[in-house]
Design brief:
The protein has a single domain, classed as Rossmann fold (3-Layer(aba) Sandwich), CATH 3.40.50.720. It contains nine helices and seven strands. The N and C termini lie far apart (40 Å). With 255 residues, it is of the alpha/beta class. Strands 3-2-1-4-5-6-7 form a seven-stranded parallel sheet, sandwiched between helices. The protein has helices spanning 19-30, 42-52, 75-89, 113-140, 154-157, 163-183, 201-204, 208-216, 226-237, and strands at residues 10-14, 34-39, 66-69, 95-98, 145-150, 188-195, 248-251.
């Protein structure tokens, strides 16, 4: 039996195939949770479970970790996921991490409607669908829970070439605050993390010159590690943050 701050809990992590989502799976499992790694790229989710999870499959009290293919922008895909998990684990996850996200950057004057819509569909609507579906399942099962949504520091400050992404991540903050007010009576907490510039595949696409300019604006002088976000995710998932809801937490190195 593994002890940890989320020991014995079932955790769903979207966008688990890389970056912050993969790191969240690592730290949550290290702290005793059974992890469901969900990603549109099923092979990447499998890799997270097989190569990156801190604990061997089946070493937690709830059951084996699992990898599942998921399109967060599809209500059908999300509802099928819930049905699968109910069958497999006999209860909904009590930790829900909304980490799935995409970018399709361009100058606003050149941004296509399709690229605007697809970013909203994944980042904003996807977060909504997961929250709605799984919060409903928790209320029906009379279970308390914690939902952690991944926004971005650009939601506060904006960013050149990211009008679509910024809009989606600002929307996540507003949704988080509203959902926290609605779900508090069910003892379901909802919080958002605003990562700064983190060493993920998404940030890896930024040109080196632009990256250098950003580093000058970070007092700690470096990119963040995905694990550093995952530690905050795990804190918000645990009883150590039992009176924290509706909060937005910057994890930016001081940016």
């Amino acid at each position: 039996m593994v002890s940890g701050i989320v020991s014995g809990r079932l955790a769903l992590v979207t966008g688990a195939g890389s970056g912050i989502g993969r790191a969240a799976c690592q730290v949550l499992s290290r702290e005793g949770a059974t992890v469901i790694a969900a990603d549109k790229d099923y092979e990447a989710a499998v890799e997270t479970i097989k190569k990156h999870i801190a604990l061997a499959s089946g070493s937690n009290s709830v059951g084996d970790h699992s990898a599942i293919e998921l399109d967060v922008s599809s209500s059908k895909s999300v509802s099928e996921l819930l049905s699968k998990l109910q069958r497999q684990y006999k209860a909904p996850p009590t930790i829900i991490i909304n980490s799935a996200g995409i970018t399709k950057d361009n100058w606003m004057l050149k941004l296509s409607e399709d690229d605007f819509d697809s970013v909203q569909d994944v980042n904003l609507k996807g977060t909504f669908l997961i929250m709605q579906t799984f919060a409903k399942a928790l209320t029906e099962a009379s279970l308390s829970g914690s939902i952690v949504n991944i926004s971005s520091i650009v939601a506060k400050y904006g960013n050149v070439g990211q009008t679509n992404y910024t809009a989606s991540k600002t929307g996540v903050i507003g949704m988080t605050k509203s959902a926290a007010k609605e779900l508090g009576k069910f003892n379901i907490r909802v919080n958002a993390i605003l990562p700064g510039f983190i060493d993920t595949p998404m940030v890896g696409t930024i040109p080196d010159k632009v990256k250098e300019n950003f580093l000058k604006m970070i007092p700690l002088g470096r990119l963040g590690d995905p694990i550093e976000i995952a530690e905050v995710i795990t804190f918000l998932s645990s009883d150590k943050s039992s009176f924290v809801t509706g909060a937005t937490i910057d994890v930016t190195g001081g940016f």
